[in-house]
Every structure is written in C-alpha cells, then in structure tokens.
Amino acid sequence: MAKTIVFCTHSTSVDNELGIQSGWLTPPLTEKGVQQAHSLGTQLSLMVQCDGRTWDQALEQDWRKQGQWQPCWRYSFPGKNPIG
Fold it and tell me: Which end of the chain is more exposed for a tag (fewer CB within 10 A), N or C?
C-alpha cells in the first residue's frame, strides 16, 4: 500500500509583510521569502524518493527555478511502509 506525504512550506510573502492573511492563495514571495524557500532541500529529496526522479531531474524541475510556488505538494511512497 502506498503512503502519502503532504509537504507544506511557508515562506514570507508580500501579503505577510502587509499584514494580509492570504490563506491558500499564492502571493509573490519577498526577497526574504525567496531565501527561506532556498533552504528547503527536503522537498528535492521527496521528488527523488517518491516521484522516481533523478537528482538532476529534481534540480532542473525545482519549482523555485520555474516560479511555480504553491503552499503544499503531495508525494506518495510506493509499496509497503518501511517502518512497519
């Protein structure tokens, strides 16, 4: 049975700095938010482990390069739960 992980990030957006609660909307990131997002290597690891991509593919398809920020991504581990 596949296991699903929902990976959510939070980085400072323009709305955050203006005191606007934007919820699930995707306002542009501030420069600080971009820096925060760059530290999220965990997501690249999930792209490799769950989506079957190579590290080269994960780096090339990284959302930060594509400007395709979203609040959450869903990944599924195929097969049995390795923990039990």
Answer: C
Residues 43, 29: contact at Cβ < 8 Å? no
Contact 20, 51 (CB under 8 A): no
- Sequence-distant (6+) residues with CB within 8 A of 45 are none
Cα–Cα distance for residue pair 27/13, rounded to 1 Å:
6
Q: Which residues contact 4 (CB under 8 A, 6 or more apart)?
A: 74, 75, 76, 77
pTM over 0.85: no
Distance between CA atoms of 57 and 47, rounded to whole angstroms? 9
Query: Model confidence over 12-22: pLDDT tens digits?
Result: 899 999 999 88
